[in-house]
Write a structure and sequence with these properties.
five-stranded antiparallel sheet; Alpha-Beta Plaits; about 25% strand; Beta-Lactamase; alpha+beta; 2 domains
């Protein structure tokens, strides 16, 4: 007995895990497969007859309209990504394959949920430039930002300050309390440092218990000294009860100014590092 393909096609479409949309020239949804329930949280009858643009993430409307024009001009788009708002308010990332059918007078699109993939890609991009423990900028991104700041300072004949911080006696915390507690202390330090600077400044963890802070657009070296005093004061605040009475370790801060202490990244980092160790030696001698 021959198979009636005309009768089978609609059943196959509704069995697809991806969602099939048919949208007319006015962006009205004229057909959507049953997989829309998993994708957007709406039943097919709730979507049919409504503008597809109503469900798009507002930040993606412009780029999506450009893709729609491309498709309606006869150029299929097989790798377009955008975001939609689900019925429950959540955001779904969608990968589209879409083309225009002149015979039907509509564009046909197949939508695949790639939210998990997009989140994994975003996490990988983040980890490429951030310390996985503290979520601060890592050495690589910090060096890039320092180079950019130096070029801008050179162009505008402005100054910048580079702080180099080392946590005193941090090894003792790891040795006595364990690395899990040490990691929690490092995260607390990171949050406190972030709270001391502006969004235009950069805080980075460049290794173990060493941090750097890049300060730009400050008024004077006195302002930098005041910022260093603020950091020292904040770092000296006690840890919370969740740390079981553990004392917050102190820190030593060295500083280098552009252009007074150097005009390139390596020289400034070396100067700030040397200044930090000078402070650390003074502390040891006094203690």
């Amino acid at each position: 007995m021959p198979v009636d393909l005309q009768e089978l096609y609609p059943k196959l479409i509704h069995l697809m895990l991806d969602t099939v949309f048919v949208v007319d020239r006015d962006n009205q949804i004229v057909f959507v497969s049953d997989a829309c329930g998993a994708l957007l949280g709406y039943r097919a009858d709730e979507l049919t007859g409504t503008p597809i643009t109503d469900y798009m993430h507002p930040d993606d409307l412009a780029v999506t309209r450009a893709s729609i024009i491309r498709v309606m001009n006869g150029q299929p788009h097989f790798d377009f990504r955008n975001r939609y708002i689900r019925k429950d308010g959540g955001i779904v990332h969608i990968l589209w394959a879409a083309s225009w059918s002149e015979e039907v007078g509509a564009r046909i699109g197949v939508a695949r949920d790639v939210t998990a993939l997009s989140q994994a890609e975003e996490e990988l991009r983040f980890l490429a430039h951030h310390d996985p423990l503290t979520k601060l900028t890592n050495r690589s991104l910090f060096n890039d930002r320092l180079d950019s700041a130096l070029r801008a300072a050179h162009r505008h004949k402005s100054t910048l300050a580079l702080l180099f911080l080392d946590i005193n006696d941090f090894k003792g915390i790891n040795d006595v309390q364990g690395h899990a507690v040490g990691d929690r202390v490092l995260c607390m330090i990171a949050r406190r440092l972030e709270g001391c600077v502006r969004e235009t400044d950069t805080v980075a963890r460049i290794g173990g218990d060493e941090f750097t802070v890049l300060l730009t657009d400050f008024q004077s070296e006195v302002a930098v000294s005041e910022k260093m005093a603020q950091i020292l004061a904040v770092m000296a605040e006690p840890l919370g009860a969740e740390f079981g009475g553990l004392k917050m370790p102190s820190c030593s801060i060295g500083v280098a100014f552009y252009p007074a202490d150097g005009e390139d990244a390596d020289t400034l980092l070396s100067h700030a590092d040397d200044d930090m160790y000078r402070i650390k030696r003074q502390r040891s001698a006094a203690g």
